[in-house]
Specification:
By secondary structure, this protein is mainly alpha-helical. Among the domains are: 1-151, Serine Threonine Protein Phosphatase 5, Tetratricopeptide repeat; 353-466, Serine Threonine Protein Phosphatase 5, Tetratricopeptide repeat. It has helices at 9-14, 24-39, 48-59, 64-76, 86-100, 106-119, 123-136, 141-154, 157-167, 180-191, 195-208, 213-225, 229-243, 247-264, 267-285, 288-303, 309-319, 329-341, 345-360, 366-386, 390-397, 411-427, 431-447, 452-465. The chain starts with 8 loop residues before the first helix and ends with a helix.
Amino acid sequence: MNASSFRDCQAWKDEGLALSTSSNEACKLYDAILTQYVKWRNDESLGGIEGCISALQTADPNFVMGHVISTGLELVSTTSSTRLNERLASAVRRTVELANNQNISPREKLHVRAMELFARGNFSQACEVWEDVLLDHPTDMLALKFAHDSYFYMGAQVPMRDSVARVLPHWKPHTPLFSYLKGQYSFGLLETRFYDQALKVAMEGLALTPDDAWSVHSVAHVYEMRAEVDNGLKFMESREKDWQVSDILASHNYWHWALYFIERGQYEAALEIYDSQVFKRCKASGSMLDIVDSCSMLYRLEMEGVCVKERWRELLQVTQPHTDDHVTLFNDLHFLMVSLGADELGTSQRLLEGLQELAKNPGDNQQHVLAESIGIPMCKAMMEYNNGNYVQTVELLNPLRYRMVDIGGSDAQRDLFNHLLIHASMKSKNKRHQKLARCLLVERDAVRPNSPLTQRLMQKALALHA
């Protein structure tokens, strides 16, 4: 990426995406930020995303879309809540104020509106506004990518796929960032179980751009969902040099690599990746994706009977400051894994009570609306499991099986809660629960045949219930 190749005022105008600023420098920096966001990487030669954001604010402090992208990226990272972070809340207000006092385009006004809705936790309405932008401006990558991420946070699998499908015909191979659409589309396809097509589209993306970490990630998912462990391991290893440059996604791709080892029962190999890549990167970046990956990996290993006690204590240092955030239920559940694992009863209790408090008066924050029916019972189920109350765990979790998708994340990430239900059902003294465990394993085997992990659990269930 070199700075001269980014789009200036005229280039954005020529694409029908005019930006309300007279600064060519601001336009190019906006493009540089967008490009790094799409590529999942901080380009050090540009000063990374942070460096470009501060240069952009200097180039034109009143550039509305500059504020939209910089504040929007912080919001979408879910590392901080406008409820608690006054600096972030005032950045949102400042953007709205600038938009109201300037003569900006209808498209830019919609961007400001969507960002404001997202900041309030109203993800689905924010997505409707981004879709409104895309209706008239199908090549607006910022609207597409913000919507893509937000659908992901809502577990809105079909809209995430269709959002990209709708705009694909309008993109031409020479359109900047064209190849990255393949990975985005592939991800929507695999989350709606079109695995063959997802694989084909991701490979098309990689043929165009071998270091597209999101396409790599999409392929990793397909092999994960089909329990094709050998293919997954071979693929991740053969392409490691390409995808590890994408520092924002590298840790997550290492997490996928480790999942194959857990699937195989090679726990030492998984822990090696956890220590050398996943946790190390999570501690350095403080990125929410890296944090939740660390949480879920330890939780999976612990369910498999691996002792990870000391690692929980270390990870608690990273998650504890986020206890009161409550930006997404998905994040909350992952923080809870850590406080439970580290025997931090006070933190676990505080997280649950904070969520209960917000659920009483959720306003239009959809995560808080869902807390009552899904988030809180899932938290309680994890607490019961931690206390050895397996009957209660099953009774809380089983009715939510087909609604858990609403906490967001991917099928692969949420699979952890399927494991939890299976383990709780196996350990429950209730005979019907034990029967349920066997049924869940049969069902799992039908969806992803030849899974070594399913086989192990089946043997365990038979031994326990013989």
